[in-house]
């Protein structure tokens, strides 16, 4: 009976600590900002748990933790390039080589696009390679700040690790089979939850470590003299009957 009371107390204490720290880590997202200007846009979604008046690039955990956390950013982008359809295969192959030379890899590819992942710090170099493929008609880079998510996961994982250790100690201290089975049941539940969170942390860390860029290729064929006549007729009909 005494062991059961201790078990309930341990679970409640760790649960309350985790809940309180998780609430402190949240903060409302800030408005997006254009980092490139011009036709190339990059949006930043800020969701940090704390920031200084100077806009520091570091975020801090709740004061009760007293440990700083570096800002965690997830970068994803798309680039659309126009060039002759006969050169699609050549440029896709060139982009794959460029990504691998930067320490990245190919995530997926098709006959008209390729998705690449490179270390986050090398994204600009991969963008430069994409801009050499042909005329860039569209480029979008999205940067999302996931520091709050990272800190929340870190706190929950740390708390569950402490709880699991304490439960393991209670199993060894159990005096009856019923008490041991009761603690082992809770230990199994905590272990499952911990493994799920650790899996989420691995995914998040991978997203932060590697930026993702998808390059789309479009044919740059222009209409001939007769084609321009039909295009002009189509534009006139659209102007007469279609209102935006």
From TrEMBL:
<keyword id="KW-0732">Signal</keyword>
<feature type="signal peptide">
    <location>
        <begin position="1"/>
        <end position="19"/>
    </location>
</feature>
<feature type="region of interest" description="Disordered">
    <location>
        <begin position="48"/>
        <end position="69"/>
    </location>
</feature>
<feature type="compositionally biased region" description="Polar residues">
    <location>
        <begin position="49"/>
        <end position="68"/>
    </location>
</feature>
<keyword id="KW-0175">Coiled coil</keyword>
<feature type="coiled-coil region">
    <location>
        <begin position="143"/>
        <end position="214"/>
    </location>
</feature>
<feature type="domain" description="DUF4349">
    <location>
        <begin position="71"/>
        <end position="220"/>
    </location>
</feature>
<dbReference type="InterPro" id="IPR025645">
    <property type="entry name" value="DUF4349"/>
</dbReference>
<dbReference type="Pfam" id="PF14257">
    <property type="entry name" value="DUF4349"/>
</dbReference>
<protein>
    <submittedName>
        <fullName>DUF4349 domain-containing protein</fullName>
    </submittedName>
</protein>
